[in-house]
Amino acid sequence: MLAIRPVVAVPEEPTMTMELTDTTGMPAPAAAQLAAVRTELEQQRRFRVEQLEEAEVDAAEALAAADDARLQVIRSLFITTEAALREINVALARLDHGTYGTCEHCHQPIPIERLEVLPTSRSCTPCQARADIARVRRGGHSRRPVAGPASRAASAPSQ
After folding, report:
1. How many CA atoms are closer than 13 Å to the CA of 41, on its beta-carbon side?
2. C-alpha span between 54 and 108 (Å, rounded)
């Protein structure tokens, strides 16, 4: 008698292909470009601080109403906003220290086109791609979420 056995396919390791451009020899951002970036980052920081303040008010209202679903959404917003604010503050500190626009990994200039799209970028595109591939191979994210007001309030002892 002929037996049929199922064939189990083994998934291949995820691959990521991308053309990586060498940034060696690219010019650093000019003073006028850096001033524009600072203005943009300061505006983004004000917006994120306002978001955090609004999230705290919303969290208090959701707690008072015992609205767990709303608390979950507010917590997610708070975590995301805190992370964005941290990145903005790091970028502003790099501007203050004269290291903004320089890749933290290869120490080459980050193209201004990348900084215009992602002003908090710490890495040039090739170094970021290598870091992303390494993170995927390790199995996920390297950052841990930070607790926001909703989770702090939810974990507080009840009276």
Report:
1. 26
2. 39
Report CA-CA distances (Å) from 86 to 28, 41, 79.
24, 11, 11
CA distances to 13, 14, 105, 135 from 10, rounded to whole Å, are 9, 12, 34, 21
Long-range contacts of 82-87 (CB under 8 A, 24+ apart): 82/52, 82/146, 82/148, 83/143, 83/146, 84/44, 84/48, 84/120, 85/45, 85/48, 85/49, 85/52, 87/120
pLDDT at 157: 45
What the chain holds in terms of domains, given with CATH numbers, is 31-140 (1.20.120.910)
Query: What pLDDT, on a 0 to 100 scale, did the predictor assign at position 33?
Result: 84
pLDDT one-digit tens code per residue, 119-157: 999 999 999 999 999 989 988 654 544 444 444 444 444
Instruction: Give residue 99's region: left, alpha or beta (phi > 0; psi -120 to 50).
Output: alpha
- Sign of the Cα pseudo-torsion (24, 122, 89, 33, in order): positive
- For residue 153, CA distances in Å to 35, 62, 72, 139, 148 come to 40, 11, 12, 31, 9
